Amino acid sequence: MDVSSAHYSDPTFTVFKVPKWRAYFYQFLSITVWGNLPSNLQKSVSKWYASVYNKPISKYFISPYIKINYTDSNYLEKFKPPFEKRDFECFQDFFIREFKEIPKTGSEWVWPCEGLLCEEGKLHQLRAAQVKCDTRHVATVFGLKEGVIPANYTFTNVFLHNKNYHRIHSPIDGTITRIQHVPGDLVVLRPWIYKQDPSLPAFRNERYNVDITDDLGRTWYLSIVGGPAVGTIELNEKVQCGNSIGKLDQLALFYLGSTCCMAAPRPPQFHKKNTFVEVGMRY
Q1: Do 235 and 223 contact (CB within 8 A), yes or no?
Q2: Which of 6, 21, 203, 218 is the most buried (most CB within 10 A)?
Q3: Taking the model in full, what pTM does it have?
Q4: How many whole angstroms separate alpha carbon 254 and alpha carbon 43?
């Protein structure tokens, strides 16, 4: 079954129409208030919050959560508990659920994650962001200096809502050529509260950058970005520099909340801003 013609996830997703005044207020709370707390305090609060979902009692949240958030009553049947567990022992197990069967696709390039495509455009067309009185260009998201990534590359940012599948997969067959951890904040990721710059959190939040070079020698840049309540971003043990990686092999998983940015040598074929993408769907 090809993901381009069938959904492995529940694609219903609401792009909230937040009034400007409320968006600016939420942005003030996220950037000016929460964002100015020391990073260590942000992480401590986030880990404490995330720990609630590791408690056995939280498994009772799963059934009502599915009824509220998914139109497919059999949604969970497509997944299995993580780490070879027999059951979902807590809500966090549900959050980092695994596919029973990785989506099949005949496409050479695929989307690495599931969620809302909240920004898409050529690197040279995207404006820089102001972060703590510092001007940062798109390459900053990937831990690189301006000009390292070709200007004609396409930048995409996929926001993973809490209801989405939270594992990141390789978009191509290739070789891992760089891995970088960038310390940072954990400001709110919700793109609808950043009216003019939905990717602002990706410029300042903690993230892992992974470069994959394809068979044509082109580098695909991925940035796996954490947010509030993200206790951990965990890379797959096979994600090491020099290792070969296959299309749809797992790169990383999130423990609550996330965004995935990518700079690619080609634009998406069928998706534009504010559309829903799925793992394995033709890029």
Answers
A1: no
A2: 203
A3: 0.90
A4: 14
